[in-house]
Amino acid sequence: MFFKKFHSSDSFISYLTEKNQKLELLAMIALYILVFVSIQITYPYPAVTADTGNYILSAKTSIINGYRPMGYSWFIQLFHLFSENIKAIFIGQFIINCIAQLSFIFSVKYFFQLKNIPFYLFSLLFVLSPSIIFCTNYIMSDSIFNSLTLLYLTTAIWIIKHPNLVNIIFHFIVLYLTINVRYAALFYPILSIVIFILHSKKNKLFIAIALVPLLIGTIIYFDTKSTIKKTYDIEQFSAFGGWALANNAVSIIPHIYLEPEEIENEDSRLIHKIITRFPDSTYSHKHINATDFMWKKNFPGKKVLYHIQRESKLRYTQAWMLTGNKFKNYGSFLIKNYPIEYFKYYIFPNCKQLFYSYKVPNVKKYVPSNLSKGYFNLQFDRYDYKYSFLHKLNPVRKIFIPLLWILFFCSIIVLFKKKLIFKNEQTLLFLFLLIFFLTYVGFSIIAHPINNFRYLIPIYCIQLLIPIIVLNKTLRK
To answer: Which three-class secondary structure state does DSSP give residue 464?
Structure first.
C-alpha cells in the first residue's frame, strides 16, 4: 500500500488505556475542570481589546474586515451557532485548548518515553500556564492559533513517525485553518513540505504529497486577494504586513541621511517627506516597540494615511489597506538600502525582547460594545470583576520566563556536549521541534515587535519540552 498501515495507532490506543496513562488522563481532566471553574468564577466575561470588535464584526457579517484574517471569525461564528451567550467563546476555546494540549502531551510522552517526574513536570507547567489560560477567555485569535499550532505539531510528529492517510488529511485541514487564523503560520507549509520529502526516499509518491502544503498556501493567498479585491477594490493580501514592515523599518530614520529626491518611487518619496517632518524621538525604540507609528493619530503612519485618504477619497478601511501597500514598498526600500542600520536598530533590540517577561493583564471590568451587545444579546453596560488572580502570578512569571530560557539553552548545550543518544526516530522528532522553534522565533523577530505576553505562546510547548527531554534522557542513563 502507498501509506503504511498505522499499526502504532492500535499500540498508542493501548498505551493510553494502560492504568498509568488512564490515571494521568483522569487527573488532567480533573485539573482542567478545576481551572475551568476558577476562570468562570473569577472572569465570568471575556477579556477584550480594540481588535475584538473587528473579529466580531466579521463573524456577524461574514465579510473580511481588511485588518485581520478571517479564520478566527469563523470560530466565533461556530461558537455562536451553539449559543448566543458570549461565554460560549470561552467554553469553545477552552475545550479546543484542552484537546490540543492533551494530544501533544501524550504524543510526546509516547514518542520520547518520558518518565513520570519529567512528564508530570511538563504537564503541570504546560497546563497551568497563566498566559495560555488567560487567552482561552480572551476574544482574540491567540488561543485558537495556539491550539491549532499544537495540533499542527502533533500531526507533524505523527507523520514523521507513521505517515497515515487520516493523519495527513487532518494535518492539511489544521494547516489550512491555522494560516487563515493568523498569517504568522505562512512558513508552516515549508516545514510540512520538508517532512514529506523526507518520506520520499522510501516512496516517491510523497513528492506529490509534498506539493499539497504549497497548494494550500497558494489557495489561501489568491483566495484572500480575490475576496479583498471584490470587497474593497484593493489589490492586496495583507495590509497589516505593510504597516508592520514600515513600523519596523522607520526605526532607522534618526540614524540615516536620506533626501526624498534620492527615492525613485513616487509614493515612497511622498511618504518619506511626511515621515521626516517628525522629530527623531518619534522613531525611538520605545515608540517602535509600542507600534505607535501604526495606531496613534498624531504619529507619522496615521498622517500618511490621512493624506492618502484625502487624495484618493476612499473610505477609511480602503485607505488603510492602500496605505499598507505603499508602506510595504517604502519599508522594503529602507531595509534593502540600509540593512546594517535595520539590524542594529530594529532586529537586535527585538531579539533582546525575546527574553522579557510581559505581564498578563489585570482585567478589572468588562464593558461590552454595542456590536457585542447585539451579537451576544448582552443586557448590561458594564461588569466589574469581584475577583481576579492570573495577573497576581506575574512576579512568578518574571522569574520563570528568563529561567526557562536559561534552561532551554543549557539543555541544548548539554544535549550536544554529552552526546545524549536518541533513537533514530526520536532524533528526527527532536530536530523538527527544534527547527520549528527557531523558525518561529526568527519570523517573529522580523515580522513585529515582540511586545506582548501573547506572541510567543505557540512555542512555549517546545521551549518547555526540550529541557524536559534532556532531563528525561539524563534520568534514563
So the answer is: helix
- Residue pair 176/155 in contact (Cβ under 8 Å)? The answer is no
Helix, strand, coil percentages in the chain from 3-state DSSP, rounded to 5: 75, 0, 25
Residues 445, 427 contacting (CB under 8 angstroms): no
Q: Under 8 Å CB-to-CB from 34, ≥6 apart: which residues?
A: none
Binned at pLDDT 50, 70 and 90, residue 415 comes out as confident
Pinpoint the alpha helices (H) of 128-265. 130-136, 142-161, 165-181, 188-199, 205-232, 239-249
Q: Is 255 exposed, middle or buried (0-12, 13-18, 19+ CB in 10 A)?
A: middle
User: For position 206, what pLDDT does the model report?
Assistant: 84
Return the closest-CA partner of residue 301 out of 280, 278, 281: 278
Supply the angle between the helices 188-199 and 424-447 in degrees, to the nearest 10: 160
- Put residue 330 in one of left, alpha, beta given phi > 0 → left and psi -120 to 50 → alpha: alpha
Q: From the centroid of its chain, how far is CA 109?
A: 24
DSSP H helical ranges for 233-265: 239-249
- Output the CA–CA distances (angstroms, integers) from residue 92 to 78, 153, 185, in the order listed: 9, 21, 22
pTM over 0.90: yes
Q: Could you identify the residue written with the cell 489561501?
A: 220
pLDDT digits (tens, 9 = 90+) for 42-82: 999 999 998 999 999 999 999 998 888 999 999 999 999 99
Neighbours of 13 (CB within 10 A): 9
Rounded CA separation 261/273 (Å): 9
